[in-house]
Automatic annotation (TrEMBL):
It holds the Pfam family ANCHR-like_BBOX. Keywords: Coiled coil, Cytoplasm, Cytoskeleton, Ligase, Metal-binding, Repeat, Ubl conjugation pathway, Zinc, Zinc-finger. The gene is Trim9_2. This is TRIM9 ligase. The keyword Cell wall biogenesis/degradation does not apply. Residues 168-217, 229-271 form the B box-type domain. Residues 518-682 form the B30.2/SPRY domain. SUPFAM superfamilies: B-box zinc-binding domain, Concanavalin A-like lectins/glucanases, Fibronectin type III, RING/U-box. Residues 379-437 form the COS domain. Its main location: cytoplasm. It is found in: Cytoplasm, Cytoskeleton. Residues 441-536 form the Fibronectin type-III domain. It comes from Polyodon spathula.
Length: 682
């Protein structure tokens, strides 16, 4: 009921309708609101302008009404409905429903005049008044009847009354003396609401009261509200009731309208019959709309479930992402520890080398210093003979010691720099490239049935990915069975979404299915599509298989060759099994060259006579005789030739490996009938 409330609100005041009237555009408006948005138009307006309902516009030509309205709404959203040049234009306002409302430029009458109006009465309207529908903005000039020219919407008024009553407080027992309790039942015969104690005391289920019908309070309230149907009166003839329905104007009319008014020449029907007809149409439309509403509710449930699923998947994905990033951080920390260990090892190695060199140099320096001090003391001695005895040895020791302090000895064995530079560039680049990838297999393809078809022994299939699928697809795999309920086999693998399979068996039922694949794997199969090939083969000559000397006509059903050399042309359909028969007619024959008819593989030679290689089986015919030809051998020679009007029939039985020819002349009748056995065509 709450959803219906928006349908029961006036587009001007935003409140529930009070005394609604029907505008010619089929929109509704409160009577008081209609008076408030009236606009006075200039006196110079054309007398041919539109009038209120039933006053000169027989078919509600709204487009003409809009054209004849001299004061229409501007594109800027402001209305210039001022009645005279001296009255300034006024910006439009918005009603609570969001519809633009144009305030009247004519000052409203004094408030006391409103107080004198009775509900349903129509106050006097100034001359040359105009009203604009606040919903569709169509303008309409009022005639002398003013707002009385618009019919009252009694149906809408009744719906509003029932809606207001349904929102009232809970029904109370009518027999409780002090504080009435909430009613539990209502007696339709007594028209009284009872609580359980009062029902047992005042309305016992025995005697005459046992036949009374008790209903729930809500149902009883509805039955109470159902009042006798009001008889609406004609808007043009207020004393006449509506009795007929004008089909052309689509409004109820009275007898006086039919006799005197504009509806006299229109098609009319009985009001009751049209009432039942329109109720049936509305009920049918409501049933369809109800189905749509049911689908919408189910769709909303699906969407709400999707919200829950999205939230759950998001939490799961976030947890997985955090775990993966933590794993990367752990791996980086472990690698960091390994690299630091290498730095420490290099540090210890450098220190050891330098310290060893320091220790070695310290020892040598001490020895050198001792030698130097000893030599200085020897030089101080004044004994020449004693000095000369040891001088040569000392000189050699000094030179040897001096040579030991060469450049290599005084060069550091280790540098202070660490030859270790961390190459973090690739890792940083990898981190920057760290992103999500599709690790799911593709969704199940959808077969496009409107594009799938068969032609002769060819089948064309088309498919697509689901509209909301975002998983990358690398290709598709199309599978067909053998046409006899056997196993499926792959007939196409690729990225295309349409494939035509040729060379199928005629009069066979094939099952087909397709699946998608990517780097993550292969998706599910689509639904199986069953397709029936043609029962009878219809084919023509194939220009792509012919020599350029052959001329095609009659939609490739007729061929002509003006060359004296042998030329071959094939049909556009191949056979692999079954029994097939076709006929060829000779329209013109001048005895050269001699034709040959038969069957052949697709790779048959095109510039030699048919049957001269091992890829064709043919019947050679001239004007006197005919014979079979295969692999350049002649068999089964038969007397009788061909001429203009000769018909050659070819019967191919692949089940038994036979090829039969029949030659029928237009004048001579049958002249040849021969068979070739032992054929084994692929």
């Amino acid at each position: 009921m709450e959803e219906m409330e928006e349908e029961l609100k006036c587009p001007v005041c935003g409140s529930l309708f009070r005394e609604p009237i029907i505008l010619p555009c089929s929109h509704n408006i409160c009577l008081a609101c209609a008076r408030n948005i009236l606009v006075q138009t200039p006196d110079t307006e054309s007398p041919q302008s539109s009038r209120a309902s039933g006053s000169g516009v027989s078919d509600y030509d709204y487009l003409d009404l809009d054209k004849m309205s001299l004061y229409s709404e501007a594109d800027s959203g402001y209305g210039s409905y001022g009645g005279f040049a001296s009255v300034p234009t006024t910006p439009c306002q918005k009603s609570p429903n969001g519809v633009r409302v144009f305030p009247p430029t004519v000052p409203p009458p004094p408030p006391q005049h409103h107080l004198l109006l009775q509900p349903g009465s129509f106050p006097s309207i100034p001359r040359n008044s105009c009203i604009t529908c606040p919903q569709c903005h169509r303008s309409l000039n009022l005639d002398d009847r003013g707002l009385r020219g618009f019919p009252k919407n009694r149906v809408l008024e009744g719906v509003v009354d029932r809606y207001q009553q349904s929102k009232a407080a809970a029904l109370r027992c009518q027999l409780c003396e002090k504080s009435p309790k909430e009613a539990t039942v209502m007696c339709e015969q007594c028209d009284v609401f009872y609580c359980d104690p009062c029902r047992l005391r005042c309305h016992p289920p025995r005697g005459p009261l046992a036949k009374h019908h008790l209903v729930p309070p809500a149902q009883g309230r509805v039955s109470r509200r159902l009042s006798p149907r009001k008889i609406s009166t004609c808007t043009e003839h207020e004393l006449e009731n509506h009795s007929m329905y004008c089909v052309q104007c689509k409004i109820p009319v009275c007898y006086q309208c039919l006799e005197e008014g504009k509806h006299s020449s229109h098609e009319v029907k009985a009001l009751g019959a049209m009432w039942k007809l329109h109720k049936g149409q509305l009920s049918l439309a409501l049933n369809i709309l109800s189905d749509r509403a049911k689908e919408a509710k189910e769709f909303l449930v699906q969407l709400r479930n999707m919200v829950q699923q999205i939230q759950e998947n998001s939490v799961e994905l976030e947890a997985c992402l955090v775990a993966q990033c933590d794993a990367l951080i752990d791996a980086l920390n472990r690698r960091k520890a390994q690299l630091l260990s290498r730095v420490n090892k290099e540090h210890e190695h450098k220190l050891k080398v330098v310290r060893d060199q320091i220790s070695h140099c310290t020892v040598k320096l001490r020895q050198t210093t001792g030698l130097m001090e000893y030599c200085l003391e020897v030089i101080k001695e004044n004994d020449p003979s004693g000095f000369l005895q040891i001088s040569d040895a000392l000189i050699r020791r000094v030179h040897m010691t001096e040579n030991q302090w060469g450049k290599a000895t005084l060069t550091p064995r280790m540098t202070t720099d660490f030859d270790l530079t961390l190459d973090s560039g690739p890792l940083l680049q990898t981190i920057h490239q760290l992103d999500f990838v599709q690790m799911k297999v593709p969704a199940t393809p959808i077969l496009q049935l409107e594009e799938c078809c068969t032609n002769n022994n060819s089948a064309t299939l088309s498919w697509k990915q689901p509209p909301l699928s975002t998983v990358q697809v690398d290709g598709y795999i199309l599978e067909l069975d053998d046409g006899n309920g056997g196993q499926f086999r792959e007939v196409y693998v690729g990225k295309e979404t349409m494939c035509t399979v040729d060379g199928l068996h005629f009069n066979s039922t094939y099952s087909s299915r397709v699946k998608a694949f990517n780097k993550s794997g292969v998706g599910q199969y689509s639904k199986t599509l069953v397709m029936q090939t043609a029962e009878i083969a219809w084919f023509t000559f194939d220009p792509s298989s012919a020599h350029p000397d052959i001329i095609f006509s009659n939609d490739n059903l007729t061929v002509t060759c003006n060359s004296y050399d042998d030329r071959v042309v094939l049909g556009n359909t191949g056979f692999s099994r079954g029994v097939h028969y076709w006929e060829l007619s000779v329209d013109r024959y001048d005895n050269h060259p001699d034709p040959a008819f038969g069957v052949a593989r697709a790779d048959v030679l095109k510039d030699v006579m048919l049957g001269k290689d091992d890829k064709a089986w043919a019947m050679y015919v001239d004007n006197n005789r005919s014979w079979f030809m295969h692999n350049n051998s002649h068999t089964n020679r038969t007397d009788g030739g061909i001429s203009k009007g000769t018909t050659v029939g070819v019967l191919l039985d692949l089940a038994h490996g036979t090829l039969t020819f029949s030659v029928n002349d237009e004048q001579q009748g049958p002249i040849a009938f021969d068979s070739m056995e032992g054929l084994f065509l692929p």
